[in-house]
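Could you help me review a protein record that somebody else here produced? My question to you is simply how this chain folds and whether the tokens agree. Thanks in advance; the entry in question is below:
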Amino acid sequence: RENSDIQAPYDEGYHKRRINGTTTYTIHGKKYHGLGEVARTFKIPEGTLRKRLDNGLTMDEALKGYGVYDHLGLFYPTEEAMANFYGMSWSTYHRRKNEGWTIEDALTTPLRTSGNTNGRNTYDHKGNHYNSVKEMCKAYNIDYGTFYKRLKKGWSIPKALLTPKGTRDKKGE
């Protein structure tokens, strides 16, 4: 990976140091006290991590498949850490990802907030604010009922809003 000018919450690199009898690992700019803490953070069994390191793998190789990168290429040990960095819960990020949102849209689209009199603030996949789902559908020139039928069939919000009426997906509309 190329280095970036953007300061990531977990910088590139890995260092190992022994302090007061405890091995401290610095991985992507964050310090961990012992392999147990590394394993817990990256959600890898400690025995698996130890075995990989004992077999001569580097820390990056041993953690391969563990950790995630955002749309900017910044590294995080877990999806939860990435979501938290962007100010959202893991469940919100996971729901958006399962709805077909891109990683960038899932992380950068503002969260819904309350505050108007009917309590129904709605945001589309681009972060545009609407007072209701019906208002959002009207802005996209899509029938409210069609929009909800599409969502029930598992369509993502962007696909449900942007696909012209009468267009069928592989499963049918």
